[in-house]
Write a structure and sequence with these properties.
The structure is a homodimer. Chain A is about 60% helix and about 5% strand. By secondary structure, chain A is mainly alpha-helical. Chain A has two domains: about 80 residues, Winged helix-like DNA-binding domain superfamily/Winged helix DNA-binding domain (Arc Repressor Mutant, subunit A, Orthogonal Bundle), CATH 1.10.10; about 170 residues, Up-down Bundle (Four Helix Bundle (Hemerythrin (Met), subunit A)). In chain A, strands 1-3-2 form a three-stranded antiparallel beta sheet. Chain A starts with about 25 loop residues before the first helix and ends in a 21-residue tail after the last helix. The N terminus and C terminus of chain A are likely disordered. At the A-B interface, helix 4, helix 5 and helix 8 of A face helix 4, helix 5 and helix 8 of B. The structure holds a DNA duplex (30 and 30 nucleotides).
Chain lengths: ~280, ~280
DNA sequence: TAAGGGATTTTTGCATGCAAATTCTCAAGC
DNA sequence: GCTTGAGAATTTGCATGCAAAAATCCCTTA
């Protein structure tokens, strides 16, 4: 029996798209050059979606099997997700899925806000360059188009998330500080902390719309402040914007009805509900 | 010929200690549970020390050979250093060592300063808890002891670096914001950007002493401001402290004499000198 | 019946073999 | 002389086998 049996068919095991239609990992996995990248993004999707119980050991054979690859890329993918903070390595016992407290999510959003505030200040001081300015202005326009519609179906939710990611990425990119981008990317790895992770409270559409409109106004004022070169105001607005995002998450999360509706929002499954910050090893 | 030949003897290939006597990777590699951790830390040391030419492909066979392990852990170690930003992955062509501009180092230090400033503000607002306060006060004491000596030999330089790392880590740890710690750790991965990476300008001992005394005074005032619960002042002092650190690096780096003397300071070898930000792919 | 200890089974960690991709070599053609 | 392309030689990426560690199970004993 030769090894050329090629058990792995690159089978499309995990083609799910998330509840907001973002298709994030799916996209990344599709455009992946190597099998490892596919495996990593597929595994990330599985983990964020709660395919594995939290705080429980994750056997690499099962991962390999689920991903349709051998143990080598599966192990590499697990190592990558460990670096992202989603998995914890138990010295000689493999990996387990890490859980996050809601507090940590909110903290991550606030740290993100601080980083974005620095970016906004620098962008305002240096002046906003063409490409980044265009991207941010385009986001304002996209938001206006979306807000004209009364209903937000999955496609519009996805488009809103993409718009939001674009706006924030353009802001952080605009300052041109590479280490700032790296730190920003790092805090965005905390589940639900990234601008992509918007919880649409389908149980309370009126509340959701108010939140989206507030977001849009924030964006408008932030861009305006940057263009006016009022760096302190821009930074303050960005901080407040992040604060609101964290507050929204805190308000929306406990709504059990909501959680049932947006359970596909990647990362929700990893947030501990209720009790204390139990086994929370680094 | 069975595979149990065990070519790898866990041979102590890279037991060098750096110019400041920090023995950082050496320590980590020694206390490592698994061979992969040893390989990773040894490889990190080699890369930071400039054992491989910058911006040039790094064949995994050579890495495996140098580390005395097989290709599997070598590859895993390279993947880990990629996550740390020290190596860049070329899709189907392995890895290469990344170079950094001096500008990026200074930027990383400034971002670090912003994060530490947030930590200081929060610590001041919440009050400094026992353990962290004790660690920071101990650092003040250690610095005073060291400054009583006129000469800074390698051992004292190492102790100074450890003291500095301790102070900054305690500050960031004091606020209790885990995502802040993660972001802080991320920017510290940029070579020369961490509080550990102090360049002792042996060519100008008087200048060096002034810089160390200034550092000590900064630390004293920062701790004082936090204890006095003056959060804004604490944050401002921390920002200024980081600014000075970046300015010192900028001032010290071009000194070619110095660079020859402190070439063992990990990371110096990765900084591009002179010309433009050449091939700087993300 | 519960606890302790040892043997079996599972799982991790690492080395290695193979196929595909890339890079290198070198000569032929413009 | 310089470019170009076909074949050779590396090198990467992945699957798999083996040994050691961990987890589990089962039996003995109090």
């Amino acid at each position: 029996m030769q090894k050329s049996l090629k058990v792995n068919k690159n089978s499309p095991q995990v083609g799910l798209i998330d509840g907001n239609g973002m298709q994030s990992e799916a996209e990344a996995a599709a455009s992946a050059e190597t099998q490892l990248e596919r495996a990593t993004e597929n595994l990330r999707g599985l983990v964020l979606r709660g395919a594995f119980p939290v705080d429980v050991k994750l056997p690499e054979t099962r991962v390999a099997e689920l991903l349709g690859v051998s143990r080598t890329p599966a192990r590499l993918a697990m190592a990558a997700l460990e670096q992202d903070g989603l998995l914890v390595r138990l010295p000689r016992r493999g990996f387990r899925v890490r859980s996050f407290s809601l507090d940590e999510v909110v903290e991550a959003i606030e740290v993100r806000g601080e980083l974005e505030a620095v970016a906004a200040r620098i962008a305002a001081e240096r002046g906003l360059a063409g490409e980044h300015r265009a991207r941010m202005e385009a986001c304002i326009g996209r938001a206006e188009v979306l807000l004209r519609h009364a209903e937000f179906d999955a496609a519009r939710r996805g488009e809103w998330c993409r718009m939001n990611v674009d706006f924030h990425d353009a802001l952080v990119g605009a300052c041109g500080i590479r280490p700032l981008r790296a730190a920003y990317a790092k805090v965005n790895l905390v589940p639900l902390a990234s601008p992509r992770d918007i919880m649409f409270n389908v149980a309370q559409p009126a509340l959701t719309r108010r939140q989206l409109e507030a977001t849009h106004e924030d964006h408008t004022h932030i861009l305006e402040a940057i263009l006016a070169r009022t760096s302190t105001r821009a930074a303050a607005l960005v901080r407040e914007h992040a604060y609101r995002s964290g507050a929204n998450k805190r308000r929306n999360f406990p709504d059990i009805e909501l959680r049932r509706m947006v359970i596909e929002t990647p990362g929700v499954a990893l947030i501990r509900t209720g009790e204390a910050d139990a086994a929370d090893v680094a």
